[in-house]
Structure formats: structure tokens, C-alpha cells
């Protein structure tokens, strides 16, 4: 329901399961919101989870967390999977 063409909000990425990776507006894209002072931050930087805003947001609780609602604990397994996926992307 979020991060899809008609999902509301103002993020421009599209994360529908049937959207091709090159159409997601996710890889090597500058964030339109905070960068958390990450060095040369992008939404997702292939091979560089430490520069990937998507991973940072998933790792937070509080202001700027993702998902923004109904979550008061970090999904450590989900974050580890996301980190592994980012590491697996070709630079």
C-alpha cells in the first residue's frame, strides 16, 4: 500500500513486488528527505549498506523510522536481510 504508484506520501520510489529493480527509482537515487549525514547517501547504494538511507530508516525507531506506524521495535531479521541484499547488488 505504501511506496507504490498510488500509495500516497511524497516518496518517489515504487516498491511494488512486480516492479523491475531498474524501474523502482531506488538504486543510486538521492533521497528527497533526510540523509542522516550518511556519506554520499543514496536511497540504496549497491554494495554499500552504510551509505543506504533505506537501510538506515529500517534500522531506526522514532522520528524518520520506516515503517512509520505500528512499529516500536526494529525488525532485526528484516534489517539483516536488507543489508545482505544491498551487499549483493553489483557496484
Give an account of the 3D structure:
The longest helix has 13 residues, at 76-88. It contains two helices and no strands. With 91 residues, the chain is mostly helical. The mean pLDDT is 85. Helix content is 21%, strand content 0%. The protein has helices spanning 53-58, 76-88. It is globular and about 30 Å long.
Number of distinct helices? 2
Total number of strands:
0
- The first-to-last residue Cα distance is 30 Å
Indicate the proportion of strand residues. under 5%
| Overall form | globular
Mean pLDDT level: 85
Order of helices and strands: HH
> What is the percent of helical residues?
10-25%
Sheet with the most strands, sense and barrel status:
none
Radius of gyration: 13 Å
What is the structural class? mainly alpha
Low-confidence stretches: none
Q: In brief, what are we looking at here?
A:
This protein is mainly alpha-helical and 91 residues long.
SSE layout and pairing:
Elements: H1 53-58, H2 76-88
What keywords describe this structure?
mainly alpha, 2 helices, about 20% helix
Amino acid at each position: 500500500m505504501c511506496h507504490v504508484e498510488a500509495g500516497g506520501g511524497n516518496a518517489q520510489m515504487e516498491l511494488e513486488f512486480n516492479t523491475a529493480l531498474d524501474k523502482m527509482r531506488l538504486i543510486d537515487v538521492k533521497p528527497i528527505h533526510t540523509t542522516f549525514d550518511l556519506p554520499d547517501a543514496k536511497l540504496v547504494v549497491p554494495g554499500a549498506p552504510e551509505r543506504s538511507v533505506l537501510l538506515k530508516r529500517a534500522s531506526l525507531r522514532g522520528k524518520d523510522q520506516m515503517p512509520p506506524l505500528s512499529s516500536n521495535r526494529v525488525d532485526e531479521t528484516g534489517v539483516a536481510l536488507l543489508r545482505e541484499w544491498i551487499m549483493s547488488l553489483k557496484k
